[in-house]
User: Fold this.
Amino acid sequence: MEHDKMKSALMAVLFASGEPIGADKLAEALETDRAAVEMLADELGQDIKGITGGICLIKLEDRYQLCTESEYMPFVKRAMEMKRNTPLSQAAMEVLAVICYNQPVTKSFVEQVRGVECSGVFTTLVEKGLIEERGRLELPGRPLIYGTTDVFLRCFNLPSLDCLPPLPRMDAVADSEQRAIDSIIEDESAKSGQQDETPPGQQDEKPERADAMPEDCSEEKNAENDSFAKQ
Assistant:
């Protein structure tokens, strides 16, 4: 098959599917190899970008899909009478973050991380197609495990999970906390040192003895002792 004709066939298959299709399946349909499909997909994506149109070719992991450009979605929604999707709540975003960085995971794992019950949030994310069941763990009760979907990648404009922003390194967080602790200790030590310093001019002074008597009182005491001795 000619190169241009094969590229047109690839576009036709992706358009007819509507869903992401893996590179291996496309290679089988076009009777070629995976490397050729990837090259054709790159060229097709560039060709579509060069045309003033409302579609684009996206890659999700090792799968390809033709999609509507995001700027034209309002027109598509009005034409197809789509209801406006309710934005994800803060709780849903937190659950989604735990799942996408640790998948596959169980619901109990997510609940342990967040410290609250998450059944309702899981139901919402499954209904929106952002997460899906990935099987069961071989543990007592055989709990379900969940992972993200192609819809998740498409909604967050991610080619693959490898493109997720990195989480803060634990050693960096620990170093920051240790620096804060060291700073507090230094401040406390400086305050303590200032309190222990004796003001100048008072270091050689000795406290006056409580039993010290005036000189006049000492002479009177000696006179009394002499009187008793004569008696």
Q: What stands out?
A: The domain at 3-80 is CATH 1.10.10.10 (Arc Repressor Mutant, subunit A). The chain is about 55% helix and 10% strand.
